[in-house]
Write a structure and sequence with these properties.
The structure is a single chain. A hairpin with a 4-residue loop joins strand 3 (about 150-160) and strand 4 (about 165-170). Helix content is about 50%, strand content about 15%. Helix 1 packs antiparallel against helix 2, helix 2 (about 40-55) packs across helix 11 (about 265-285) and helix 4 (about 80-90) crosses helix 11 (about 265-285). The protein is globular and about 65 Å long. It is built from eleven helices and six strands. It folds into two domains: about 5-100, no CATH class; about 110-260, Ribonuclease H-like superfamily/Ribonuclease H (Nucleotidyltransferase, domain 5, 2-Layer Sandwich), CATH 3.30.420. The two termini are about 20 Å apart. Strands 1, 2, 3, 4, 5 and 6 form a six-stranded mixed sheet that branches. About 30% of the residues are buried. The chain has about 280 residues and is α/β, with parallel strands linked by helices. The protein has helices spanning about 5-20, 40-55, 60-70, 80-90, 90-105, 125-130, 175-185, 190-195, 210-215, 235-255, 265-285, and strands at about 110-125, 140-145, 150-160, 165-170, 200, 220-225.
Length: about 280
């Protein structure tokens, strides 16, 4: 445990605690009458971020580490069943903190975004695919970037050129990227309300005249490489260096923040663990 991590944890705890005092409705619901939790919601979110940044994919190993090394910051730490239950219930709070941190940076108003999707594998055996609680949401898909089939979900991510997440969606592996992007921007119109002429960099999968018309109607200028048989498109010279940025973000999520080692077994479990990693990335930025 380093001094820098202690400082980050303290700053994040204070920020989340202030947010909950100003907006108590963001806290997970609990009955008016009953025992007060010994671990506050602000401490829970802070611990969730520290788990990811310190590289503990296993909750059991993380809690053993926390009990041994973090008692100076967190006097009370739950056992694994309590931790798992509290974390799943706090998904909406983690999402709110994610947006709160993102909007408090100058990066939030960047006029260039990058969009892409990346696989989130949830299982490998046929038995898992048939019996898992994720069956029906998770499905078989193909990842051309890694030349492999997988069973699971896709994380569709819009981020700034600095890698900060702006918006995201978790879908089945076969979801059409163009449709998901339009859904993200339509469901949350406030993202584009104060951004006239927003530029969006994408790969060749984000194509189609009707799709580009829909984006233009939302005030978004799409830049992407030309597909086979298409004439050269504007901004081609920018794609190689800038496209590497989104690949770098995806690699950070997978290589350093263990995106595909989430160990989620239910929709709620997978969702909060993906949010946990996105929040850790945003907090670090």
């Amino acid at each position: 445990m380093t001094t820098e991590m202690d400082t980050l944890a303290t700053a994040l705890y204070v920020r989340v605690d202030d947010l909950l005092k100003a907006s108590p409705h963001l806290a997970p619901w609990r009955p008016r009458v009953g025992l007060e939790p010994k671990l506050s919601d602000a401490e829970l979110v802070t611990l969730a971020v520290m788990q990811v940044l310190l590289g503990f994919a296993s909750e059991a190993r993380w809690l053993r580490h926390a009990h041994a090394h973090l008692r100076h910051l967190f006097p009370y730490l739950p056992q694994q069943p309590g931790w798992n239950k509290r974390l799943r219930r706090a998904a909406s709070l983690v999402k709110a903190v994610l947006r709160e941190l993102a909007t408090d940076t100058v990066l939030w108003m960047d006029d260039v975004w990058i969009v892409d999707s990346t696989p989130v594998e949830c299982g490998r055996s046929r038995t898992t695919a048939k019996r898992s609680d994720l069956a029906g949401w998770a499905e078989y898909g193909y990842c051309p970037s890694h030349s492999r089939f997988f069973w699971g979900l896709r994380l569709h991510l819009i981020c700034t050129l600095h890698g900060m997440p702006v918006a995201f969606a978790l879908t089945g592996a076969k979801a059409v990227e163009r449709e998901v992007l339009l859904d993200i921007l339509t469901v949350e119109p406030g993202l584009l309300a104060d951004r006239p002429g927003q530029t969006l960099l994408a790969d060749r999968n984000y194509y189609g005249r009707e799709f580009e018309r829909d984006l233009a109607g939302l005030g978004v200028l799409l830049l992407r490489p030309a597909r086979k048989g298409e004439p050269e498109r504007a901004g081609t010279e920018l794609f190689k260096p800038l496209r590497q940025l989104i690949e770098s973000v995806n690699q950070t999520l997978k290589g350093q923040l263990d995106l595909e080692r989430h160990d989620g077994r239910t929709p709620a479990g997978v969702t909060v663990r993906i949010l946990q990693r996105l929040l850790a990335l945003t907090a670090a930025i």
